[in-house]
Amino acid sequence: MARMCFVPLPLLLLLLAISGHAFDFQEATIDSIQLAFEDGTLTSRQLTEFYLERISSLNPLLHAVIEVNPDALRQADVADRERRTTRRRGGLHGIPVLLKDNIATRDRLNTTAGSFALLGSVAPRDAGVVRRLRRAGAVVLGKANMAEWADFRSLSAPSSWSARGGQGRNPYVLGADPCGSSSGSAIAAAANMAAVTLGTETDGSIICPSDKNSVVGIKPTVGLTSRAGVVPVSPRQDTVGPICRTVSDAVQVLDAIVGFDEQDSAATKAASKYIPHGGYKQFLKVDGLKGKRIGILRAFFNYSSDGATKTRVFEEHFNTMRRNGATLIDNLEIANLSTILDVSQSGEQVALLAEFKLALNSYLSQLSNSPVRSLADVIAFNNEHTAEERMEEFGQIIFLAAQNTTGIGPAERSAIAKMSELSMEGLEKLMMENKLDAVMTAKSGAATVLAIGGYPGISVPAGYGEDGVPFGICFGGLKGSEPNLIEMAYAFEQATMVRKPPSFKQ
Ligand SMILES: *[C@@H]1O[C@H](CO)[C@@H](O)[C@H](O)[C@H]1NC(C)=O
Ligand SMILES: *[C@@H]1O[C@H](CO)[C@@H](O)[C@H](O)[C@H]1NC(C)=O
Ligand SMILES: *[C@@H]1O[C@H](CO)[C@@H](O)[C@H](O)[C@H]1NC(C)=O
Ligand SMILES: *[C@@H]1O[C@H](CO)[C@@H](O)[C@H](O)[C@H]1NC(C)=O
Q1: Positions in the chain whose pLDDT score sits under 50
Q2: Which residues form ligand 4's pocket by a CB distance below 6 Å?
């Protein structure tokens, strides 16, 4: 990580305390930060210094961040100056944001999906979501660690390890799995290395780490947010979304990043019909559960005796939702669920392997400069750097299988058709027949159901197990149902307020 000079944190806090208006950095939200900016008790520079200091003290333990931006403080100064002299740019003016390391920036930061193979590559431009973040006034704080290549290289590598970033740790229980692939983003938000982070998801990569790190993750409908400039897995399933500590923060970030991007034109154009006039913030309603019909997918709340705490906690949550005016339809099942959850049966594996090779080759060929220009080059790089890339332990079986594919042929087309059929007969039919606004799951079990259909989901903190490891609840729905999902997620969060900061238990 780049070295910098900081005001030591204790000194900064002391100075703020003496001034009588100590800003509470712990659990700070976008709203509380903006208020402090407005009334002059906090500057973007102070906030950025705080996060940089926090990263440098916690990262050796948590491995949540790969690089910090050597230009972050300068960007913060610009934001402070603009606030004094001109209009605010947007809702994220002066707010530092950590980006998952597969989201490209055209600046001094590297974009490597956690791999040494991409070190030194230069993106032709900022990713579409980064352009929007900068337009909203955000400060790019750095790149978050992730499962290398979004967990699409090896079947045996942990889902929160990358060669460049190391092994991500769960800040609640250091030995517990933080899940991936957006592990660093979720860990960093949980441990307050930033209030705002972005993750990406192909199948579970926002929902699962959010679930395990007691943070809020929004996995938007595919196409709602641009994937241009994101190291891809599959354009059919990939989506970029916020990971923050509160639903309100995540929604304000969603507002900043959604919309048409000519660099990802087909998908963002198709999904732009879902974006409500006036944005998503209007759906942060404390009575958002009132009148909602929510299906309980019991298979995902099915704990054995060691999950007695979770079973009890979820029953309490269901009662809270009912008291807040929701109608819960219990014991629902997604048709063909076992097929959906088996990647070799659903068609997902066949489709992803071929899509990955095409999409990665296209991403690599568009880079302004890169040591690798194709999946074949990356495979060769790994073979030549066995120690750094830990090839002996983890291998690259998924890469090899992907390299064997030859485009979207009959087998891939039939796999994709099968996934649509499973989605139609599964989630779509269940939602229609029961007139549902959403389905609920735990154990991040909805991820694959949502992934293969391009559907949205929101994970919200729901509790802590006897071992102290967090767990969440996920609200999922049909394409474009973000307004409904946000209403339910926000009302649930406000009624329960489960999240607490991590304690770094050994
Ligand atoms: C990006 O990687 C290069 C090595 O290729 C390194 O020198 C540089 O410091 C990295 N950038 C940041 C911001 O860490
Ligand atoms: C819950 O799990 C048990 C044992 O694994 C299984 O027999 C049962 O069918 C499951 N129930 C539901 C609703 O999935
Ligand atoms: C790739 O194809 C070759 C030749 O058909 C086969 O021997 C090999 O097992 C395949 N590798 C993977 C990982 O699928
Ligand atoms: C789903 O299950 C039904 C009933 O078992 C079966 O007829 C149908 O072919 C399955 N659909 C898919 C896409 O596998």
Answers
A1: 1-5
A2: 335-336, 339, 418, 421-422, 425
